[in-house]
From TrEMBL:
Gene3D superfamilies (alphabetical): Aspartate Aminotransferase, domain 1 (3.90.1150.10), Type I PLP-dependent aspartate aminotransferase-like (Major domain) (3.40.640.10)
Positions bearing N6-(pyridoxal phosphate)lysine: K181
InterPro entries: DegT/StrS_aminotransferase, PyrdxlP-dep_Trfase, PyrdxlP-dep_Trfase_major, PyrdxlP-dep_Trfase_small
GO MF annotation, one: pyridoxal phosphate binding
Similarity remark: Belongs to the DegT/DnrJ/EryC1 family.
Active site residues per record: K181 (proton acceptor)
Full protein name: Aminotransferase class I/II-fold pyridoxal phosphate-dependent enzyme
Keyword Transferase recorded: yes
Amino acid sequence: MTAIPRLSIPLPFPALLRTAAALAGAQGGGAEIAAFERAFAARYGRQDAVCFCRARMGFFHLLRCLDLAEGAEVLIGGLHVADFVNIIRLAGFVPVVVDLEPRGFRLDEDDLERKLSPRSAVLLVTHLSGYVHDMPRLRKICDDRGVMLVEDCSQAFAARYDGQRVGTFGHAAIFSLSLLKSVCTLNGGIVLAEDPALLERLHRAAEAEGAASRGPMLAETLKNLVIKTATWPPLFSLTVLPLLRLTAAAGDWFARYQKTNKTVVLRDRLPPVFRERFTAVQARLGMSLLPDLDARESKRQAAGRLLRSLIEPDGKVALPPQCDSADNGYWLFPLVVEDPARLKAALSRQGVDSAPMLLAALSTEAAFAGMGFSAPNAEWTRAHTLFVPMYPTLDETDIRRIAAAIADFQRAS
């Protein structure tokens, strides 16, 4: 029986090969970047957007362009790309970590209320795995306290709350365009904002960055090609999954290879590679994925809803809470599990690959010790999450196989 890989690269082989060839040429083409920015923004009812070399740099420049008071606090969820703590610090502000709800992926609103202070200026709310927050509630909390709400929609390109797209509830929104994202431009990120004057300042900041170096983008192109080849189902079934089983005791080497942020450090400056411009080559990749984006994401969401309906939570396997009014994105499909390693091994024996949590629990990172971060629920969720396959090319048979494998584990336990 053909195995089901944990992930699927959205970029087709020909696009990746064309990109590798194009990276050997000139990197100009401001008109192509502008066209991609406008096309992306139009999906969210905005006139314009601004691309950066990384989503974290989009957030950095957004913070710098908001005219915040010196030493202002920026609140961020307890599970995130760890480097966002550095981004907040290097932008000149103070990071404050907000815990998540118990056994879930949304912010704990009570903890948020406790951690808001007169110095609070920005809340970055991340729709983790495409699980949507109660956005009207968060917007009201922010408006009542004079805090700017910024949405991180990197894992929720098509998610909605009460029919409204996430990314349109806050004062601004950021999207990662990196590996596995629904719109992938190798590296890259894009910022949406309500205020035209803010967008103009962001455009000036983006244009002031240096020329892009080819090395990192070539490396990212190669990574996409390697992972796409490794997850081709026949090869994955015959070679990759057996290797993962044999080496499981030493850890998940596939996850280590996939992970971009392999170490967490406390930075005293931004790396030079962060101070580069988004390129026309990247814009072409992004534009190529926009025409069928909604169709692909609709398939992903339908698959996520089906799998959720087929799983019977018990003491060993549970599902994260969700809002009744939310249409989640299901960029990933998390299970909250008593013993993730045991479930992972059981699924692997049935040909279903799965993956650990790659995001950091910010309150446990040694690099950030002494910053006073506290998020025990986020720490627990990180340790007890296992992601099963969830992507647009899965069909109903695949989803029912995954559900059956989970049910077999529950019965055997």
